[in-house]
Design brief:
This is SRPBCC family protein. The chain is an alpha+beta fold and 128 residues long. It is built from 4 helices and 6 strands.
Length: 128
């Protein structure tokens, strides 16, 4: 499970709104830095993502900068015959003070997005 999440191209497969991951570079202490394109309500937002915590096989934390600023903190722990995966995500939507008016809509969108990402992660790992 950790190896799957540690492969940047897999995030394109599991996250419905990531339309591309590119310019992938390995980091000296593990993990990667990459460019991404994320679609929010159909609008392309481009930026970079970097692993800032890389603790195999327990944790991956990514910082996102650019079109969307934020963090995704993936935690994994054994659970019976499988792995329990949790992900906490925090994002700042571009647009300054006006964007705060849309926070509830964006929050609901991102919650659905994360639920779908976790479902796709499970299906992808179970099919291999």
């Amino acid at each position: 499970m950790f190896a799957f999440l540690d492969t940047p191209s897999n995030h394109e497969r599991i996250s419905p709104s990531i339309s591309s991951v590119h310019e992938v570079e390995p980091l000296p202490d593990g993990g990667h830095r990459a460019g991404y394109t994320y679609r929010l309500f159909g609008l392309p937002l481009r930026g970079s993502v970097e692993a800032v915590a890389h603790d195999p096989p327990h944790r991956l934390r990514f910082e996102l900068r650019g079109g969307i600023d934020g963090e995704m903190d993936w935690r994994l722990r054994p659970d019976g015959d499988g792995t329990l995966v949790t992900c906490e995500a925090t994002f700042t939507v571009p647009g300054g003070p006006l964007a705060r008016l849309f926070d509830p809509v964006v929050r609901a969108y991102n919650e659905r997005e994360l639920d779908e990402t976790l479902s796709r992660l499970r299906r992808s790992v179970e099919s291999n």
